[in-house]
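Notes taken during the Thursday session

The instructor put the following on the board and asked us to keep it in front of us for the whole hour. The protein is 2Fe-2S ferredoxin. We were told not to look anything up and to reason only from what is written here. First, the residues (144 in total):
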Amino acid sequence: MSLTEVHYLSSEDLATPAAEDMVRVTFLPEGKTVEFPFGSLEYDGHGLPMSFLDVAENYDIFLDHACGGACACTTCHIWVKQGAGGVSEAEDLELDRMETAADIQLNSRLGCQAVIEKPGTYVVEIPKWNRNYVQEGKPSTPSA
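Then, after some discussion, the predicted structure tokens were revealed:
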């Protein structure tokens, strides 16, 4: 484009966020991936806003949370496999609660407390023993 050329942006250009403004989360073992512009997720009242539980609830991905996302249990225990640098630091309440969780790893977090703080790619795994597909009011079988 020369200095005299003018490029007009269409409403579609303005509505499409740049790749660097996107959040991409993959939930293992199902391999479900969701993508959305950073800061655009509607808060549904489960866990902290922009937490992995909030993402899962917004996209109908099952992540058990017996306490409703209030950091009062460990049923939303996840392992952050990729993108941990873009996730909030664990606070004392979460760390105290995690002491009661099974199979703690260095990348263990509670899905209701681990908040995505910046755009990027994230991969989280729901531990096998923590997957409860048969629960009242929830889907009975995973797709993968």
